[in-house]
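To whoever is covering the structure queue this week,

Two jobs came back overnight. Logging them here so there's a record in the thread.

Job A:
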Amino acid sequence: MGRTIVVTGASSGVGLAAAKQFAAMGDDVVLVGRDPQRLADAVAQVREAGGGREPGRFRADFNSFAEVRALADHLLTSLPAIDVLANNAGGMVAGYTRTADGFEATIQGNHLAPFLLTSLLRERLRGGRVVNTASRAHMQGRPDPDGLAGDPGKYSSWQAYGASKAANILFTSEAARRWPDITSVSFHPGVVRSNFGVGRLTRFFYKYAPGLVTPEKAGDLLVWLATAPKADLTQGGYYVGRETATPAPHARDQQLAAKLWEASAEATGAGNA
């Protein structure tokens, strides 16, 4: 019997490539995406990759905690087991935006929402695995647990994105400490050919620059992290390729990780489990 795997950000790019690979392996996959049409197209591709097996789907916008909670309720109701949660959803925001929940949109979509979802699924994930898509861009920003609402006057899209990716790494290491019964890892997928970024030049680079990693190769790394024997992985590790790497000093600061966890739990109402 295949595993049950939930992939967020599954409508395109790394998430879709991984979902198709999971389906081809016989796993039961649930795709989570924001755009209904792109999600429907992704479901069709994953269905074909899985030989006609119908994947699960759920539309959710991670800039809304209410939608994240609805997603968690759906998963808990419909899935008796969750073997892997791939927290892959994320993106960059061009200008400062505050969500309806009161937080800067990049840190909410890329960190707080996955933190909330994972916390809500925590009991169902016992004995399972959480794979968080981080980035080497974490070197460009440090998350501020006391300033999750952000500052419109100091906003930089790249610094905000980097801070959110550092938060992914910090969340992974702290989850490994607090939840030893769940294997937690994060990874840098490479500079992936995609629709990533804001602004015409950035989007052009991520579509056409030479040497970019294909979504399929990055998806293969996510799949490996989700399926490799537990003994082959480093609990709480940050991976670049199939090897652990040392993140920037602020992304391995244990005090910052603990403080960010507490601030994230308060911000999301997830509790301090």
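Job B:
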Amino acid sequence: MTDISTDTRPARITTRIEDRIGWLEVDNLARRNALTLTMWQAIPQAVAELSSDPRVRVIVLRGAGNETFIAGADISEFATLRKDAASARAYEVSNAEAFDALRNAALPTLAMIRGFCLGGGFGLAAACDLRIAADGSSFGIPAARLGVGYPPTAIADVVRLIGPARAKLLFFTARRIGTAEAERFGFLDLVAAPETLETETRRLASEIASGAPLTLRAAKAGIDALTARLSAEDRDACQTLADACFDSRDFAEGRTAFMEKRAPDFTGS
């Protein structure tokens, strides 16, 4: 078990290929695999490289170590890299491109979840085709506690999985739910015992990889084509509301309160 307080490896996105499975790993153990801006920016290229490698039939997204999937974005960067609507919009482009890369990958994608699956981690898992988690994992979208706005396409991924009412429940309350509730909501496809998670993930990925590649691509494209998408007008309207969050006093209060480990005092301005 890794001690996150003493791990000194640089934050990074890594890939490897084993038995037709392309592993995409989020590695920032010192911060529970929180994603820095550089890591967000590296995800599309990593997905593209795995997708274009003829040895790969399925992509598995995972967090480094044995404790945490992805604890969200690295909030320590927000004061400088996501401090207002202008900087947040540039940051959101990197977020959206990472979500898009997984959602639009030609190959099937699978999220292997252990421990915290929060915020941006929840969004990346939602962008994958399938999700398997270790029992005892924790899921949530803490936006309302931070004062941040979410990319419309990332919200759409969550709504497509769990429906509008449950999506509102998670976004409005910022509550965390466990594996049983995440499975009941329809977010999780499979739950495994913690000690068998990786074995079960490999088994599922190998089962997918054994299928005819052209059939898998056609099935994914066909299913996705039947899924409702946001219109350009709806997306722009949602983006305007998200931008307003980052220009608000509440966002400054939310990120400051988080770093100071206290409850935020939001005013709606």
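Note for Job B: The mean pLDDT is 88.

Please reply-all if you pick these up so we don't duplicate work.
Q.
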